[in-house]
Design brief:
The chain is mostly helical. The chain is built from ten helices and no strands.
Length: 198
């Protein structure tokens, strides 16, 4: 039952927002009593913490699945972007923005974990792109990882609308890729941009 509550809460938090979803809403959606939820979670913050951990695990499972499909580095980034778009398509508000605003302590805890995972993903992608001849060999990988991390997290932390965040993230992905790309990389980038649905 605990896992089912976490799954339903995660779904509602991402769809409607961490602030607006109440324990009553979750109980009503699951057709259980609020008392049943409090049996496993003494307060809403504890449930949010468990839910954000689950979402983090799901995100990185899907990212690893995409990476295992052996797309080229540029297509891989666009596939990951599409996954995020699908995952948050029913949300009007940016979940990261809401978490930071209303539950800063939980936000800071999850971001600590996320930083390490994201930096590793960015590093692997750039290394792969260089090996494929899509990214320039002369770039400082550590700097470019930092640049992209700052761009993406700044967008999500400071943009309240999920739709607006997706548009800016697409611009950031193009900006990041163009900065690293070889002529072959530019050709692949243009191809991916043509296939994008915002």
């Amino acid at each position: 039952m605990k896992e089912k509550i976490i799954e339903k809460a995660s779904e509602l938090f991402l769809k409607l927002g961490f602030k607006s979803v109440t324990m009553d809403d979750i109980a009503g959606e699951m057709c259980i009593s609020k008392k049943t939820i409090y049996k496993y979670f003494c307060n809403k913050e504890m449930l949010i913490e468990e839910s954000t951990t689950l979402v983090h695990e799901q995100l990185h499972y899907v990212i690893n699945t995409i990476v295992s499909q052996n797309h080229n580095a540029i297509k891989e980034n666009f596939e990951i972007r599409n996954m995020f778009k699908e995952m948050f398509k029913s949300s009007d508000n940016s979940p990261i923005y809401q978490l930071k605003k209303h539950y800063p302590e939980i936000y800071h805890n999850i971001i600590k974990i996320e930083i390490k995972e994201c930096m590793s993903c960015f590093f692997d992608n750039i290394t792969k792109g260089i090996a494929e001849g899509l990214y320039r060999k002369d770039i400082n990988i550590d700097y470019y990882v930092q640049f992209y991390y700052i761009l993406i997290f700044h967008i999500n932390e400071n943009t309240s609308s999920e739709i607006e965040a997706r548009k800016i993230e697409l611009e950031a992905l193009e900006y990041h890729t163009r900065a690293m790309a070889t002529p072959n990389g530019i050709i692949e980038l243009e191809k991916q941009i043509q296939n994008v649905n915002i």
